[in-house]
Amino acid sequence: AAKREGRGNFQFFSEAMNAATHEHLLLENRMWTALEREGFELHLQAQVALDTGRVIGAEALLRWHDPELGAIEPSRFIPIAEECGLILPLGDWVLSRSMQLLADWQRDGLAGMRLAVNLSARQFGGDALLSRLDQLLAQHRIDPSRMELEITETAAMRDPESTRHLLRQLRARGFKLAIDDFGTGYSSLAYLKLFSIDRIKIDRGFVKDIETNPNDAVIVAATIGLAHSLGLSVIAEGVETHAQWGFLRDKRGDEGQGFLFARPMPAREFREFLRTQAQPVPGS
Ligand code: C2E
Ligand code: MG
Ligand code: MG
Ligand code: MG
């Protein structure tokens, strides 16, 4: 019986695997097409100063709408894009589109706004990223300090020595640097000292239950304190309630991002959103 069960399990797993491989191949195929036909879009989600609620910038988030499959979440397509290498041309498109957005803002009197852009670990390798960024800077003539590059903690720790090297080079060019999803990876605060970064983004997972889970509350408060004592600023992800905002503000967190302030939205809508905020954007 055990044998038969074993075989049954194997069959079950292999069918599940086939389905996964099939989906993977399908999405991979459709993504290459989307890349050729401008099927990707960047949405922008506001980032606000916690003390005033004023919008200080935005994070660029990839969106993909396939004509047949509909909208597909980044959490589904980005891991596949990373695995098959498509993240390289896709990440390049994100960088180029982001520089274009910054150039538009600069031209339209929004030069003080910061744009945060997600980088994948696959984009770190070699000098390709640096030379591409140099090329884009020359082309768009934007102020690099208006662009913040986000790398996840996990990606940064994959090869800490080469990450350290890359971050130094990026910083020398004037880019801002943030560690994304902070607290979810296997790492310690000690390495923060090693990396030349400007900001850490506290993961949504810690913010979610900040009011009800004393451990999360302590972790968030301690993280803010430690970051500040290292000279880093802190942004919290996934702020959804006024109580969460209040907590983070009390603990002297610097910035927040979340559905409470704004959902991610198309670039044009974001401009409208800024107008309705009716606040002066900090100087250029
Ligand atoms: P992330 O960089 O940590 O981005 C924040 C995610 O949290 C976004 O999900 C955003 O829509 C979501 N979010 C923001 N505020 C709230 C909130 O108040 N409540 C909840 N429940 N969620 C909130 P999204 O857009 O689905 O992106 C997921 C992940 O995909 C991103 O996580 C990032 O790791 C990756 N990603 C997105 N765009 C890019 C990109 O251009 N390049 C790369 N390499 N990765 C990207
Ligand atoms: Mg991010
Ligand atoms: Mg994040
Ligand atoms: Mg996150």
Strand order of the largest sheet: 1-2-4-5-6-7-8-9
How much of the sequence lies in strands comes to 15-25%
Structural class: alpha/beta
Small-molecule binders here are: ligand C2E, magnesium ion
Shape: globular
* Spans where pLDDT lies below 50 across 5 or more residues: none
Q: What's the mean pLDDT score? A: 91
Radius of gyration: 20 Å
State the distance separating the first and last CA atoms: 74 Å
Q: Please give the share of residues in helix.
A: 40-55%
Number of helices: 11
Largest sheet: 8 strands, mixed, barrel
Number-wise, the strands total 10
Q: Helix and strand string, N-terminal first?
A: HEEEHHEHEHHEHEHHEHEEH
Describe the structure in brief.
With 284 residues, the protein is of the alpha/beta class.
Architecture overview:
With 284 residues, the chain is α/β, with parallel strands linked by helices. Helices cover 51% and strands 19% of the residues. It contains 11 helices and 10 strands. It has an 8-stranded mixed beta barrel with strand order 1-2-4-5-6-7-8-9, surrounded by 5 helices. A hairpin with a 3-residue loop joins strand 2 and strand 3. The radius of gyration is 20 Å and the shape is globular. Bound molecules: ligand C2E and magnesium ion (3 copies). The site of ligand C2E has 23 residues, from strand 2, helix 2, helix 3 and strand 6. It is found in: Cell membrane. It comes from Massilia agilis. This is EAL domain-containing protein.
Feature tags:
284 residues; alpha/beta; binds ligand C2E; binds magnesium ion; EAL domain-containing protein
